[in-house]
């Protein structure tokens, strides 16, 4: 990493991601630290930041549209029986300190604040590892601890009445190209078959790059995948897919996603082999 305020992750000496600690953003975009740009080892960008189609999509990070009614996703809030609604309910994730900083990763402390109140404390662990001459892995763990004296619940547009929109949690806004990327798992292909389903890993393949996201813990693998390819290329795991998720005071919710970032357009066998190498199973 560099010594400035925005550390750079390196793999085999090559920069592959910049971590934006305090991006200057309007409050309605739910400001939060994120990784952007992220690239393949050959230097191909695989993230977007504030794209025109969704200004609140910020590279790679953690975003939740409903934490006890507060929006940590950005943009409009889905309100039952009203639809997407502009509300003054946006929160922000605030960098507190790095517990560890190395060229290939860091451990960070953050505060999730809304309406002047700290709701959550987060410990975020990020590491970059070389897999092959053309692929590396981003290991991303977030631990969210309820910092209030009452239960907190996590929701999504789906739990608030919008079917198929269970976004919220780890989210990767990928590079938009002329053609939509291919999306597949070990035994399914295409958005209708993959979206909203559980799978050990999910791949998004563009013209010259492939992302393979894998749940690295048993609990993470129980979260269904959220994926879009036509309107925009984005993928993440759904914290609140069917029901709201409650976290008691002082309790911690933990998820770990490992993403293979590869040059080239991988097939299923190649994707599975790299996931095994990245996750170790």
User: What is the overall shape?
Assistant: globular
Give me the secondary-structure category.
mainly beta
Order of helices and strands: EEEEEEEEEEEEEEHEEHEEEEH
Contiguous low-pLDDT stretches (5 residues minimum) are: none
Rg measurement, Å: 18 Å
Note the total helix count: 3
Give the DSSP E fraction (strand runs of 2 or more residues): over 45%
Relative helix content? under 10%
Largest sheet: 8 strands, antiparallel
Give the beta-strand count: 20
Summarize the structure.
This protein is mainly beta and 281 residues long.
Explain what this protein looks like in three dimensions.
This protein has 281 residues and is mainly β. 7% of the residues lie in helices and 46% in strands. The protein contains 3 helices and 20 strands. The protein has helices at 191-194, 218-221, 268-279; strands at 8-11, 14-20, 34-38, 60-67, 70-72, 77-79, 83-85, 92-102, 105-114, 117-132, 135-146, 152-155, 169-173, 182-184, 201-205, 209-215, 225-228, 234-237, 245-247, 252-263. An 8-stranded antiparallel sheet has the order 8-9-10-11-20-16-15-14. Strands 4, 5, 12, 13, 17, 18 and 19 form a 7-stranded antiparallel sheet that branches. A hairpin with a 2-residue loop joins strand 10 (117-132) and strand 11. The longest helix is centred in the C-terminal third of the chain and has 12 residues, at 268-279. The protein is globular, with a radius of gyration of 18 Å.
Key features of this structure:
281 residues; mainly beta; eight-stranded antiparallel beta sheet; seven-stranded antiparallel beta sheet; 3 helices; globular
